[in-house]
Write a structure and sequence with these properties.
The complex is a heterodimer of chains A (152) and B (320).
Chain A (H helix, E strand, L loop, with lengths): L10 H7 L18 H19 L12 E9 L5 E13 L6 E8 L2 E8 L5 E9 L21
Chain B lengths: L1 H12 L3 H9 L5 H9 L34 E12 L5 E8 L3 E7 L1 H4 L3 E6 L9 H9 L7 E6 L11 E2 L9 E7 L4 E3 L1 H5 L37 E3 L3 E13 L4 E5 L9 E6 L1 H5 L2 H5 L17 E2 L6 H6 L1
Classes of the chains: A alpha+beta (152), B alpha+beta (320).
Chain lengths: 152, 320
């Protein structure tokens, strides 16, 4: 996934740094210079946010652990055929560009958990089709309970 | 005063002011010396990319590669890691390297120095933070003050004039590079972590020696411990090179290199990036044709992101 080029970036990209300098501005052009470690962090955050902005995953709905999701995924190993995967979201790891989630379902009496990066090109579509009342951010306790609690 | 007369006399003889300052004032600790140094404009911008300063004339022009050619490298900042998906949907771990105004600060030639090399500098520093000797060095070669200097040995045909900026466009997506950096320091570490020793059993009577190195040698012959015996000690914070790192993407307008995998060192540290020597032996530079001796910008050039060609669909190959 190639990001938009340009030292100035698009208007959307510029909104990320909100009137400050762009993170790749040469040091000699800065009046106030922070430590390179901090500036590297600023750089990585900006690149991550820019990739997120342009990602196809922007149109996916907001969801959290406890929601029942239907994901349309392409399977590269199977000639990129799309298949629909349904399950209960038991974990969502918010990490910007590297955001991922895990869905759990019972398929033929066998519990199956699958994790997907949110911005993966293999994740074509995501729909929220229901939700369960939960009081946790991560529902790993379902692994110790019986199958009937994870079945959707 | 006496020493101001000496400066005028020497200027008449054609000495550079900065060289004279170094000779007369040493570390410039006296107040009058510091005042004089302050009045000199020592962090001036070079007037043009092509100008040389006092060294044998080296023209800035494109040349063809020869099988023995070695190009200059670049000083970059390790910014951090992320992941990118390529066009086949394969996820690749990426390290982002940022080139902060890397310029040639000194050209060393065979005639004068006995070898051909280019000293490059990256980053920027304030004048007050730099020792006078370095200020004189930058003034002599008419380059701005740099934070990090490094030297790369090159072949005769790859020499560049002082002041030439080496940008990310120096590299081509798909080529391989060797990245050198100072590794993350781990402090004083035991032999199990430092050298991968297996240690001793956890039970069966072993007394307080579970992570020790055990024996250090033989008996009366040789009767000593060999030099270089692997033992506990400082681990990390030393210079290492990771070879054959593929450049996945080049962003010339932002001076960013996206390389696959990891490079030594912390985020925010400087690393040296040069063409992978093992791939040069395989002839990669003749096949991919990176700009030689460096990328020379032209007004009509449109700088776009260059993404590596990652070959045929690996999933098709797997299915067959």
């Amino acid at each position: 996934m190639a990001a938009t080029s340009g030292a100035e970036g698009t208007a959307e990209t510029q909104a990320i740094w909100q009137g400050r300098h762009a993170p790749w501005t040469p040091t000699s052009k800065l009046t106030k210079r922070k430590h390179l470690t901090k500036r590297s962090q600023y750089m990585m955050e900006t690149l991550s946010r820019e990739l997120e902005q342009q990602s196809h995953a922007q149109k996916f709905p907001e969801f959290r652990a406890g929601d029942i999701l239907e994901c349309t995924v392409t399977v590269p190993e199977n000639r990129r055929r799309t298949s629909v995967v349904k399950g209960l979201c038991i974990a969502k790891n918010n990490a910007g560009w590297n955001t991922s989630f895990t869905i759990r379902n019972i398929v033929g009496n066998i519990p199956i958990e699958r994790s997907y990066p949110l911005h993966s090109p293999n994740l074509v579509d995501l729909k929220v089709v229901g939700s369960k009342r939960v009081r946790r951010a991560k529902l790993y306790y379902l692994r110790d309970l019986g199958n009937k609690f994870s079945r959707v | 005063g006496g020493w101001t007369d000496a400066i005028e006399a020497s200027s008449a003889k054609g000495f550079g002011d900065a060289m004279l300052a170094r000779r007369l004032l040493g570390n410039a600790r006296s107040l009058c010396a510091r005042r004089w140094m302050g009045s000199q404009n020592l962090d001036m911008e070079p007037e043009g990319v092509v100008e040389e300063a006092g060294t044998p004339a080296v023209p800035l022009e494109s040349r063809p590669w020869s099988p023995d050619s070695r190009r200059c490298g670049v000083v970059a900042v390790k910014c951090g890691m992320m992941s990118l998906w390529d066009k086949w949907g394969v996820r690749r771990p990426i390290t982002v390297l940022w080139i902060d105004e890397c310029q040639v600060t000194q050209t060393k030639t065979e005639e004068k120095h006995g070898f051909n090399s280019l000293q490059v500098g990256a980053g920027s520093k304030k004048k007050k933070q730099v020792p006078t000797a370095l200020l004189g060095h930058y003034a002599k070669h008419q380059v701005p003050i740099k934070r990090k200097l490094a030297e790369f040995q090159v072949t005769r045909d790859a020499l560049l004039p002082e002041g030439t900026e080496i940008t990310a466009a120096h590299f081509v997506a798909g080529q391989h590079v060797d990245v050198t950096g100072i590794t993350i320091g781990k402090g004083f570490q035991g032999p199990m972590k430092r050298h991968g020793f297996k240690g001793l059993p956890a039970t069966h009577g072993v007394s307080k020696a579970h992570r020790s190195h055990g024996s250090t040698g033989q008996c009366q012959d040789p009767g000593k411990v060999f030099k270089g015996k692997k033992m506990a000690g400082q681990m990390g914070k030393d210079r290492r090179t990771v070879q054959n790192v593929m450049v996945y993407q080049v962003d010339p307008s932002r001076n960013l290199l996206y390389v696959v995998g990891q490079v030594p060192g912390h985020k925010g540290n400087f690393v040296l990036v040069k063409d992978a020597i093992r791939k040069i032996w395989e002839g990669e530079h003749l096949r991919l044709n990176p700009p030689f001796p460096t990328y020379i910008p032209k007004l009509e050039d449109e700088l776009s992101i260059d993404v590596a060609d990652v070959g045929p669909d690996p999933y098709e190959a797997a299915i067959g």
